[in-house]
Design goal:
The chain is of the alpha/beta class. It has 2 domains: 246 residues, 3-Layer(aba) Sandwich (Rossmann fold), CATH 3.40.50; 122 residues, no CATH class. The protein has 13 helices and 14 strands. Strand 7 and strand 8 form a beta hairpin. Helix 4 crosses helix 11. The longest helix has 19 residues. The protein is globular, with a radius of gyration of 23 Å. Bound molecules: zinc ion (ZN) (2 copies). One zinc ion binds next to helix 8.
Length: 394
């Protein structure tokens, strides 16, 4: 009798995943070797992270810049009242590792639109979105197409929701699904001068723990099928699963790829360099790229960097930030109170007067990939030395 008890105890200890492995196509090793990024640790993000932890995903990268507020507690299984005021990503990662010590969960308290280097995306197997705004979805979408990684978007509103799977380089992307109304909303927000993060948060969407659980569950199931891509399982590639929570009807939509869509650019040639954004100066890369591609070569950024602002009253100041990180107040002249004009740069040819700056000083994120181009010849250079700063000490 005693022996029997001992035996069953051992079985349970040794095989946490035994019920999962009963699924004929399941390969638990794939899950324990997988790297999955979750963008957004809100209502959907909590469900995604919970499921990834239960499933024993080896590495979970959680990105969110917000702190926990009391109103999050109705939809966030990983958060407690005592967590209020802490970073969502930090707490979500701690809880994920509590649920399952086999997983390694890495929080990044940062803004997805500007602060996550492409090298982070490049090391993922699948990217999962749990977001509430179109700008962030567009940013993830472009990043995933650049480094050729599938991403699965989830969106909820009250009892309803949608989950969509985008697979570069051939499939339709998130931008291909956008309607004129989506663009109008984005442009309206852009034209409201430069919105601060706080201002952006004001468009709050009603959400429930039930719809986030349904949509987050569908996203995870699609991820599981992607991780078992050789098993001939039907995947929601280029499609959306639409769930109506009032009637519990659901249906699929199939998206069309728009050939003139601006988000389909995929980097073919990524070169790992022993560079860090914290130490490399702009001039160092300009010179290296000219050595590589010839004297006419330039560096091209995937973002617009605001270099300085000028006022009609004569006041000038240096800014050096990606335009998205600029706040409205940054462009108010401290001398006279008027709005200032700004200069910006998309590329560098070596003639600029600020090339002594390091990449981190102009808002380039750790482990980013930056392009060098001479005519039609383009190469993409990764700041690979930043790897440990992102994945170990972040
Ligand atoms: Zn597209
Ligand atoms: Zn002024």
């Amino acid at each position: 009798m005693n022996n029997e008890i001992e035996l069953s105890k051992t079985e349970i200890l040794e095989d946490r995943y035994s019920r999962l492995k009963l699924i004929p196509w399941w390969n638990q090793d794939r899950l324990s070797n997988a790297k999955i990024m979750v963008v957004g640790a809100g209502a959907i993000g909590n469900e995604l992270i919970k499921n990834l932890a239960l499933l024993g995903i080896g590495e979970i990268i959680v990105i969110d810049m917000d702190k926990i507020e009391e109103a999050n507690l109705t939809r966030s299984v990983l958060f407690r009242k005592s967590d209020i005021g802490r970073f969502k990503a930090d707490v979500a990662c701690e809880r994920a590792m509590e649920i399952n010590p086999d997983v390694r969960a890495i929080p990044i308290n940062a803004n997805i639109i500007d602060n996550i280097g492409l090298g982070v995306y490049r090391r993922m197997d699948v990217v999962l979105g749990g977001l509430d705004n179109r700008e962030a979805r567009l940013a993830i979408n472009q990043a995933c197409y650049k480094v050729n990684k599938p991403w699965i978007d989830g969106a909820i509103e009250a009892l309803n929701g949608i989950a969509r799977v985008f697979i570069p380089p051939e499939g339709p992307c998130y931008e291909c699904t956008m309607t004129e109304t989506d663009w109008k909303l984005i442009n309206k927000r852009k034209s409201c001068a430069l919105l601060t993060h706080q201002e952006m948060k004001e468009g709050k969407i009603p959400t429930t723990p039930t719809s986030s659980s349904i949509i987050g569950g569908i996203q995870i199931q699609e991820m599981l099928k992607l991780l078992h891509g050789d098993r001939n399982l039907p995947i929601l590639a280029g499609k959306g699963y639409v769930f109506n929570g009032l009637t519990h009807d659901s249906y699929m939509v199939e998206y069309q790829r728009k050939e003139d869509c601006m988000s389909h650019y995929t980097y073919e040639n990524i070169i790992e360099k022993d560079w860090s954004v914290k130490s490399l100066r702009l001039i160092d890369m300009v010179e290296s790229v000219k050595n590589d591609l010839g004297d006419k070569a330039i560096i091209e950024f995937d973002r617009e960097i605001v270099t300085n602002a000028n006022c009609t009253c004569g006041y000038k100041k240096e800014i050096f930030l990606p335009i998205h990180l600029l706040k409205g107040e940054d462009l108010i002249c401290p001398a006279c109170g008027k709005g200032m004009q700004y200069d910006s740069a998309h590329s560098l040819d070596g003639s600029e007067d600020f090339l002594d700056r390091k990449f981190v000083d102009i808002g380039i994120p750790l482990l980013h990939i930056i392009s060098g181009r001479a005519g039609l010849n383009t190469k993409h250079y990764e700041f690979t030395k930043d790897f440990n700063n992102v994945f170990v000490n972040y």
